[in-house]
Amino acid sequence: MSDTVLAWMVAGVLVLAVLAVYSFRVVPADERLVRFRRGCRGHQVKGPGLVVVLPGIDRGVRVPLRRTWADVMWLEATTGDGVSVTVNGAALISVFDPVRYALTTDPAESATTDALEAEIGRYVAERDLVELSESAVNERGELTSRVNARTREWGVEVARVELSRIEVRLDADLIRWAGSLTARASPATRQLRRSA
């Protein structure tokens, strides 16, 4: 056998070895790999375990399945009665449809956070300051449902939304709000306050 043929055989074996190494992916138990094949309309959800993804033919997208918290920090919002508040909260999220998640053009994590912020802002705007401070955890199920309605299209499910902190700044909005409460108080209540 000539040196040229031997060199070509060694190069071929090296190319096959490299392809073999890049063709195998290990998918952990808390992830799935969505495999898209060139020229085919279908896609396959693979894993956990060893998955074959052929370079140049297949494209693999890893999808996390574990539940995580998406945080909303220092969201500025205005209540229904015009008081500016700052809200901190979080949502427990998970992927229920790996294919939809993999097909999302924008990163699903940032889209989920954007939807969460928008719905929390809307939730705050629909309530007066007193209603917001008195709202129970079970009332926030409505907020969870509204966020879910937006996130389900990209395969993300929100299990629960928590508002951990609602801060009211001492500013003109709060003073105006307090003044409106005094104006709405009944004459008997005002008389009681004066006599006390």
Care to describe what's here?
The radius of gyration is 28 Å and the shape is rod-shaped. The chain starts with a helix and ends with a helix. The strands form three sheets. Strands 3-2-5 form a three-stranded antiparallel β-sheet. A three-stranded antiparallel β-sheet has the order 6-7-8, with helices on one face. A two-stranded antiparallel sheet has the order 1-4. The mean pLDDT is 85. The chain is built from seven helices and eight strands. The protein has two domains: 3-63, no CATH class; 68-176, Tetrahydropterin Synthase, Chain A (2-Layer Sandwich). With 196 residues, the protein is of the alpha+beta class. Keywords: Membrane, Transmembrane, Transmembrane helix. Residues 22-185 form the Band domain.
